[in-house]
Amino acid sequence: MRALRREYLQALDLQPWALRAPPAAASLDEPGSAEPDSAEPSVGEPTLAQPDWAVLRARVAACTRCALSATRTQTVFGVGNRRAEWFVVGEAPGAEEDRQGEPFVGRAGQLLNSMLRAIGLAREAVFIANVLKCRPPNNRDPTPAEAAECRPYLEQQLALVQPKILLVVGRIAAQTLLGSEAPLGKLRQQPHRFGAARVPLVVTYHPAYLPRAPAEKRKAWEDLKYARTVAQHG
User: Fold this and answer.
1) Cα 69 to chain center, whole Å?
2) pTM of the full structure
């Protein structure tokens, strides 16, 4: 296990000694397990009736709520354990995600996997989605109107998963979910809560940003350790 942690910490260009305590064993179901009862309390206030997984996926695939439906290759619904304790939220699909229909693939996805592994989580143990289900042209920032139209889908996913913690990566996703204009540096290491269920929310840097800002990798590692503590204690 120590060798595995060392491998993934090295992907962040961090020394293995930074991991001062072993991660607690996560009590997660295997991927593909039966989804929870959709009648359980929802995380937010979605504008659509709460569906099951199959209905929600079909709604997202057929969505024309904003103009992005005309430029996408396909929607990017989300992937992972439907009863995950950790729910990772990014901004929007990029070009590769738009082609494959899965969030966080390519280099950013590999680094996200490394970040998760460093705290003892496999990609398959978490649920991963984006604020937007469609790629904005040329990877531009989502508009507030686009985020508002897509928000019910994310809230419904959260209501179905019922996670213990949200790990929100990147400035745009953090500002959108928190309704804040504060820079990411001001949102990090803070005890945020999200939705009617008051789910703990932790903010960190987007994996795509870290290779361009090596000095922030240490901060990202501190955020992951903080998130692990929040997930354990609520």
Assistant:
1) 22
2) 0.80
Helix (H, G, I), strand (E, B) or coil at 198: coil
Sign of CA dihedral 23, 25, 27, 29: positive
- Asked if the structure places residue 89 within a domain, the reply is yes
Note whether 160 and 34 are within 8 A (CB): no
> How many angstroms separate the first and last alpha carbons of the chain?
26
* Host domain of residue 58: 2-15+41-233
Tell me what pLDDT residue 2 has: 59
CATH number of the domain encompassing residue 186: 3.40.470.10
Strands (E), the chain: 79-80, 86-90, 127-130, 165-169, 192-194, 199-204
C-alpha–C-alpha distance, residues 89 and 70, integer Å: 24
Find out whether 199 and 157 touch, Cβ atoms under 8 Å. Answer: no
For residue 7, the tally of other CB atoms under 10 A from its CB is: 13
What percent of the chain stands above pLDDT 70? 78
**Phi and psi at residue 192, to the nearest 5°:** -80, 160
Structure confidence by residue, pLDDT tens digits, 89-120:
999 999 999 999 999 998 999 999 999 999 99
State the average pLDDT for the chain.
84
